[in-house]
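#onboarding

Welcome to the new folks! Below is a worked example of what a typical request in this channel looks like: someone posts a single protein sequence, and someone else replies with the predicted structure as tokens. Don't worry about understanding the tokens yet, we'll cover that in week two.

Example request:
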Amino acid sequence: MKAPSVAHNATLLHWLDAGAGYDAEYSDGLSSHLPMAAMALHRLGAPPQRLNVWAEAYATRLQPAPSPQDWPSGDAWAAHLGRRGAWPMYRSLFTQWLQQEGAGDVLEAVLPRLIEGCAGAAFHGLIRTAYAMQSAHRQELADALAHWAATWLALDAPMAAPSDGCESDPAAVLRRLPLPPLPVAGRLIAERVAVVAAWPGFGDAVAQLRVDDKTLERLARGAAELYAASGNFTVLHMLTSAHALRVVLPVLDEPQARLAAVAAYWRAFAAAWAASSARSQGAAPLQPWARIVATAIAADDDHSAKLVDSCREQQKAYGAGQGGDVWRRAASRVVQAAG
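Example response:
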């Protein structure tokens, strides 16, 4: 795993260390963005003073981490997936596991199972894990994996094999999805995703997609296009989670394992697309990257830096493409939101 200059940034390292003192969630199911946004701000070039001001203000909403709990002796690591109350046990498990084995080995062992439940907590387990990998901060990686495991969300219908579909264009499949009445019921994104995924015929429709080595890029671009047009909050998480999956996917050595992971993510992505009820609101005025980045650094919310960081990183990986500068168009919504 290639790490940024975390070890040489005392401010970022301080907040990654401090993150271990907080619970992974607050306010009845909202995910802590402290470590994720701190990493994003660092990569965007936020000066130490700004990172401190943002993190100190954000931390006031968080709750102290619960007391440590030992992992039950003899239980398989996946035995308590999806139990929010199991986060302290999972912290202990992954902390010890990462002390005994390299991060790559641990990730390769758990990623195929975790990705099956990646929609839990609005994809934040996946997103936080990706940032933790890039930070090369062992405790933060343990906490991120614990959050993913504890919020893991099973989607009911079984996945088809990645090669069984007949359609290569995700957008064509999305247009044919059977949907529940809109707006979809549920307070949190993950609750609405679960409603859609359980709708009769949804699993069969999703299985029509033939997953290949270009599918993830197609999903990422589709999410960016939809966010550029709509500014929809659920779609924002689709955009940032597609970036996160691109980051974590290389830990899987086997091509078939990577395709299976993308297939599992696709099911959650499709359900999130349907649950979003996103509609075009008209594109935000296209802004230069310098203004977009400066606005994200100055913003006080907990999503702007992650959004802009994801868009910049995706543009580096995929390029602007024939559809124009989709990543910059999506990121320009930060400037519009700032007024």
